[in-house]
Design brief:
- It is built from 13 helices and 13 strands.
- With 364 residues, it is an alpha/beta fold.
- The longest helix is centred in the last third of the chain and has 23 residues.
- The mean pLDDT is 95.
- The protein binds pyridoxal-5'-phosphate.
- The site of pyridoxal-5'-phosphate has 12 residues, from α5.
Length: 364
Amino acid sequence: MPSARIATTPESLIRPEILALNAYHVPPAVGMVKLDAMENPYLLPQSLRDEIARLVADAAINRYPDAAAHQLKAAIAQATQLPSGTEVLLGNGSDEIIQLLALAVAKPGAVLLSVEPSFVMYRMIAAFTGMRYVGVPLTQDFSLDLRATLDAISRERPALVFLAYPNNPTGNLFDANAVRQIIEAAPGLVVVDEAYYAFASDSFIPHLASCDNLLVMRTFSKLGMAGLRLGFLAGSSAWLGQLEKLRLPYNVGVLPQLVAAKLLEHHDVLLKQAESIRQERVKLLAALSAIAGVHAYPSEANFILFRAAKAAQVFEGLKQRGVLIKNLNGGHAALTDCLRVTVGTAEESAKFIAALQDTINQLA
Ligand SMILES: *Cc1c(COP(=O)(O)O)cnc(C)c1O
């Protein structure tokens, strides 16, 4: 006889804050001009690709990776020019590092604070880890509202503050003095997320030496290694030593370690590609601004935020014309009618601008 056991359902078992989440949506992009995810569009030089092929062929994939990733960390320290006394913790993408930081400080009632609109993973990971999320609105032009942020910090006493510098999805760098005041006022850790460092004119790495509650996070995803999944956190050994305890020992595999170390030996190649993207960004901003009915925001990243009436229909029109960008309309109230386009090659920009012009003409 089957027992009269009450069925366990996902709804009865899973935490309510997880049930309430929407999964991070990654749309299919096969055959599209893919300008939705801030990827580097350029291939590596053939000689470097051949070197990587040999490295991979000889890799000891039957062995666990070097848990301390000595070679890769040395390559990162070399390429990044970290101040002395600064250490590095590696993540399977910087998303994993956000999660690890939150796990470390998620005492009951602990607060994770960020600004809005910003990177959605801060809020999502607060939910994953049971932290209370506080989002302080940016001003109308997407600058930091320093007064409101300092007020929220003294009221909420956040264990963790995340500031994306440049910010995603708005593309701007916040005022460095305001960020510095936030670091000084914060009772907990402040993480400056420099995912777009290769495209920006400023960094908080030099501040590491003088701010003991500051950590700087970077990823190589936007610089041409999105498929490898590699990010890092830079800071003092006092913090990183504790965080290392939470890092799963083999979170960065043999192949990513080998390939990323090799690519970082050729950091100049990647930075040259980033420079091309910066040059293309200037042209794309001008082309967008020239379209009637489009308001484009200046950017220090490899994407441009813009506003256009009927954004959802513009997004669909672009998709029908084979161009995939990111629709931000309907997310945050400050992003009504906003779309975000990655800066790709000149050819991709031309296809995007033509499709956008065509779509807007048709909607008019
Ligand atoms: C893309 C992005 C990340 C995450 O990058 P990973 O691919 O997980 O390394 C982190 N922060 C911001 C602001 C980003 O835009």
